[in-house]
Design goal:
Strand content: 5-15%
CATH architecture of the largest domain: 3-Layer(aba) Sandwich
CATH class of the largest domain: Alpha Beta
Number of helices: 13
Order of helices and strands: EHEHEHEHEHEEHEHEHHHHHH
CATH superfamily of the largest domain: NAD(P)-binding Rossmann-like Domain
Radius of gyration: 20 Å
Length: about 300
Amino acid sequence: MAGKQELGFVGVGQMGIHMAGRLLEAGYGVTVYDINETAVARLVQRGAKRAETPAAVASAAEIVLASLPTPDIVRSVALSDTGVIGGSKVKAFIDLSTTGPVTAQEVAAALAAKGIAAIDAPVSGGPKGAEKGTLAVMVAGPRKMEEALRPILDVIGKVFWVGEKAGMGQAMKLVNNVLSASAVAMTSEALVMGAKAGLDADTMIAVINAGSGRNTATEDKFPRCVLTRRFDFGFAVGLMHKDVRLGVEYGESLGVPMMVGNAVKQLLSITKASEGAGADLTRTVCTVEKWAGVEVKGKG
């Protein structure tokens, strides 16, 4: 399964369009489907083939990758009457989405009954990571299959095999995203507090990144997207709220107290309501700014 064969790709949004594009550049044939015709057309211009349904994608390729926004959409794409399960050629379904372990296990069981192997391989690194091929790819599935698929997955990022059991990749992704979202939430509160005290935003970022408070938000998201007031990280607050909700629910199902996670989920929920589900994740700071009556803005 590791040759330069025809691949399928369902879901070519902000992340998927870059991953599918990299596969095309690596010499793979790629058949794509998305409800967004504009995104599909952009890939067709680069050499991809268009399909009318996920089932059609799965009738054109033995390996189908998917990058989709919600668990319900993943279930539909994988298991509906026009889904991957109805394809005539597909042998492996690689889900790059964030769905949570329960959905990954449900999809894997249903596809296995039809002789289709399911690999959950959620990714982290945002649109820029997808474009550069530097994503963290968290793969769960049989080790031999992971080894066979690795040449494909290496094109989109650094591959980590996290276990045999379906859903383990999703568990790893939820661990990552709860931490990532917490960094955004707490950095929002901390920098707004500093701005309210009269501290300069650029100076705060410089001090934090030279000290023990540095994190992914202070190193990248805030200098690039908040201090500039561009708010263009490229990941929607509604999607991060979904990821944190899944993480909190999963943690609590395991008997883990998710006190901080719940607080982060609440802040994201308020931001989603006030800014819109499609608003950039970095606009989380705007919620705190409005309450405090101050703005976190750099000099540049």
